[in-house]
Amino acid sequence: MIINLIYTSIAGNTKKFIDNLIEFSQHNEINYQFKAIEISANTQLNTLDHPSFVFVPTYLDGGNGIHSGVKEILTTPLFEFLEDLPDTKNILGVIGSGNKNFNAQYVLTARRYAIKFGVPLIDNFELRGVPTDVERIFNNIMTRLDQKISNRPLQFKPTKAYQCISNAVTELIMIDENQQLVSPIFAGSNFNLSSQALDPIELERPEELYSIQVKALTIQHYWLVPRTI
User: Which region is the signal sequence (predicted)?
Assistant: First the structure.
């Protein structure tokens, strides 16, 4: 079976990671063939006929990159390619990359893609990654493929096991440390907390919520993207 690795690479870091991932797969998995597809403004592809994973680097300009002035730069051909697809049913996961020095903006583009296209952000790596990143992301790709083949859907069922954290602009996330799950950032006004029996921890500074979410992601929590809330 062919597995598409969809990516764009500005500085060469993502391409290097993809090359390393393909090499690793050739030594560890004989049932799948990883195929790299680099997206640019000249890409003619308009559909995905095989299971696919999207690798998204982070390039932002303007504002703080969170609540004001969020402007994606350089990677826009990838966004436009995904937006023009007839559907995203064959996209099984998003993998983000970036520079942790940018704190809450780390893998922010990938996080936004996950929400926009309804696809889970399954992992992340910094810059061009290291061998342990390659092995871990390979294993996470195999896990998602197994879920797809066995038709086991991702589920989002908030319970008291979740730690609910909100901020001053009524955004919230939920984290389950036991299962290593972290939610997308929700608008609190669209989420009925009382029905979920959740008691949120309130933060004073809005940007703290993003930093907490990034911290959870960088210790390999699994990203949940519910189809409905």
Answer: none
DSSP class of residue 174 equals E
Within 10 angstroms of residue 98's Cβ, the number of other Cβ atoms is 23
Tell me which amino acid residue 221 is. Answer: H
Q: What is the mean pLDDT of the chain?
A: 85
Task: Tell me, yes or no, whether 123 and 192 share the same domain.
Answer: no
User: Which residue has 């350089």 as its token pair?
Assistant: 74
CB proximity list for 44: less than 8 A, separation 6 or greater: none
Domain encompassing residue 184: 163-223
Q: Whole-angstrom Cα distance, residue 94 to residue 209?
A: 21
pTM over 0.85: no
Distance from C-alpha of 72 to C-alpha of 111, rounded to nearest angstrom: 12
- C-alpha dihedral (12, 118, 130, 58), degrees to nearest 10: 40
Task: Mark whether 118 and 208 lie in a shared domain.
Answer: no
Closest CA to 40 of 4, 81, 3: 81
pLDDT digits (tens, 9 = 90+) for 86-109: 999 999 999 999 998 888 788 989
